[in-house]
Amino acid sequence: MSGAGAPATGGFDASGLNVVVIAATWHEVIMDGLIAGAERVLEETGANHRLVRVPGSFELAVAAQAAFAGGADAVVALGVIIRGGTPHFEYVSAAATDGLTRVSLDAGRPVGFGLLTLDDEQQGLDRAGLPGSKEDKGAEAADAALRTAQVI
Ligand code: DLZ
After folding, report:
1. 95, burial (CB in 10 Å: exposed 0-12, middle 13-18, buried 19+)
2. pLDDT at 88
3. Does any ligand 1 atom lie closer than 6 A to the CB of residue 96?
4. Of the residues 5, 79, 135, 141, which has the fewest C-beta atoms closer than 10 A?
5. How far is the CA of 106 from the centre of ligand 1 (A)?
6. Domains, the chain, ordered by start
7. Exposure of 11 by Cβ count < 10 A (0-12 exposed, 13-18 middle, 19+ buried)?
8. Could you tell me which of 69, 56, 61, 68 has the C-alpha nearest to residue 26?
9. pTM for the full model?
10. 132: left (phi over 0), alpha (psi -120 to 50) or beta
């Protein structure tokens, strides 16, 4: 489900592109929504795709690096980090974001950034493309990766 102001997703031909969706496992309900949204766009556009699960968002970057080393044209990175009472949130969020940026630039290939950094679970439910959600960040991340792969 797209909210007001959200870009339209899909509606183009991405057949011939090999895409790896890399998804962390923390916060299962929100993650399931993000994965479903990304996979819907990849199916609709005809992209070849496979799903790789990693334990947490910290591991997204190294898995993205391996995907590009294996020939992926694009990666969609999905994770959910919810702020807690310690600085851990900041460390994992920064490490995952910086790592994915570096991997994308080193490979010269796009990473769709579907890492949600949240104050609470409700913010994730609002963005996960689930029934009642206002936005679908998994779909948006897949769409961004595909559209970028087509123009670089
Ligand atoms: C340890 C941890 C914590 C506290 N919170 C999250 C989170 O909200 N979201 C997430 O994706 N991962 C979390 N992790 C796990 C780390 O990303 C990582 O998997 C572990 O520190 C092991 O390297």
Report:
1. middle
2. 83
3. no
4. 5
5. 24
6. 18-89+100-149 (3.40.50.960)
7. exposed
8. 56
9. 0.94
10. left
- The predicted model gives 98-118 an average pLDDT of 98
Which residues are bridge partners to 77 per DSSP?
22, 113
Please name the residue whose Cα sits nearest to atom 19 of ligand 1.
56
Q: Taking a C-beta distance cutoff of 8 angstroms, is the pair 18, 72 a contact?
A: yes
Closest C-alpha among 76, 69, 65 to residue 112 = 76
The binding site for (2S)-2-hydroxy-3-oxobutyl phosphate consists of 85-86, 127
* CA-based nearest residue to 140, from 13, 15, 7: 7
Question: What residues contact 41, with CB distance under 8 A and at least 6 apart?
Answer: 9, 10, 139, 142, 143, 146
Backbone angles phi, psi at 17, to 5 degrees: -95, 135
| Residue 88 designated active-site | yes
Cβ(89) to ligand 1 under 6 A?
no
Best residue among 30, 53, 81 to mutate for probing ligand 1, ranked by most atoms within 8 Å of CB:
81
Complex ipTM value: 0.98
> For 43-67, what is each residue's pLDDT tens digit?
999 999 999 999 999 999 999 999 9
From 13, 16, 88, 98, the catalytic residue: 88
